[in-house]
Amino acid sequence: MKKIHGLLLLSLSLSGCATWERYSLLTGSESEPAEVELTAPAQQKARPQYFVSPALYDGAAYQATQQAAQKLHPQYQPQATVNVNHYVQSMMHDLVANLDLVNPQMVIGMTSFVYLDGPYDQTDLLGNQLSESFMHEVHQFGLGVVDFKTTDYIRVTPQGDFVFSRDFMELKEEQPIEFVLGGTLVRHQGGTLINARLVSVASKKVAATAQGFIPQHVVDALYQSGGSEKLLLKQGE
Question: What is the C-alpha to C-alpha distance for residues 229 and 154, in angstroms, rounded to an integer?
Answer without folding.
Answer: 28
